[in-house]
Amino acid sequence: MRLKILLLPYLLFFCVSILLAFSIVLLFSEEESGSSSNINVAGTSISQEVETHRDTVEHYAREYEIEDHISILLAIIQVESGGTGADVMQASESLNLPPNSLSTEESIEQGTKYFSELIQSVEEQDLDVDTAIQAYNFGGAFIDYVAERGNEYSFDLAEAFAREQADGNQVTYSNPLAVEENGGWRYSYGNMFYVPLIHQFLNTPSEGEWIRPAEGMVTSPFGYRIHPIYGDRRMHTGIDIAGSGPIIAARSGTVVAASYNRGLGYFVQLDHGDGYQSVYGHMQPNLQVSIGDTIEQGQRLGTMGTTGTSTGVHLDFKILKDGDYVDPAPYIGL
């Protein structure tokens, strides 16, 4: 009996410790799941049917001076038609014609011309490319809608615009992006998921050419997220790697920017010469490269910092392909 009494405090301490540990695990699990509202836009390859139209797309992209957006034009074909049928860019309606009124080449010419007009419009109003992408689906009115609400596309704005245009009417939508985001529905006007649909076909890595630019934990992946400062849902066009060490070139290239801006803080941008560029943001002020420098893969560019719009020391690493942001993770083996 005396032994049981002596053991009782230890048993109580053990039980309390187990309960406390469980509570901590539960707390962190709830915080993690509460913040994981990102739409997953992991890379998916363009189909062979779409690839057969590449030469025609490149021809009209040059004609309408949007060569930097060939990847987007191909992704539009993928989303609109999968590269099959005649009106592969579903461009008839931009001419106020019935759907599928155009031949394949007419569709690509008109779709490219229409997208070039949208790009011109967003550039004139200092908006982002994602606004033009969504406007390809919604129509040009969406550009003005974004311009009046902060000048930057977000999924929240696309959803709100569709809700207004559809008078709140919802329809079932079984695409995995929608199922992940809201259980599988969209508003009946256009497709509010158009930008993430396009982005999933922009992320096609060239394996073996890239290395990791910094050591540390990935704290925020590429994709839609709740912005840690502004609190709204918007596209994160890179990946965040938390740490405090050196930043190195993920691939050989030429420095085309080594400067400061309000968002990225001190940053370096490299041109790799084949349609790819990489960006390294939130660095400490002591950048170790200058514009025009030729950089070898693995060469030090600077040090992780927290300059610009930042909540802590980290690297915001971005990759652009033909002028469009793609997910860096598969390129660097994450």
UniProtKB/TrEMBL annotation:
One of its GO terms (molecular function) is metalloendopeptidase activity. It is found in: Cell surface. Its main location: other. Keywords: Hydrolase, Membrane, Transmembrane, Transmembrane helix. SUPFAM superfamilies: Duplicated hybrid motif (SSF51261), Lysozyme-like (SSF53955). Pfam families: Lysozyme_like, Peptidase_M23. CDD domains: CwlT-like (cd16891), M23_peptidase (cd12797). GO terms for cellular component: cell surface. Residues 234-328 form the M23ase beta-sheet core domain. Gene3D superfamilies: 1.10.530.10, Glucose Permease (Domain IIA). This is Murein DD-endopeptidase MepM and murein hydrolase activator NlpD, contain LysM domain. The lineage of its organism: Bacteria, Bacillati, Bacillota, Bacilli, Lactobacillales.
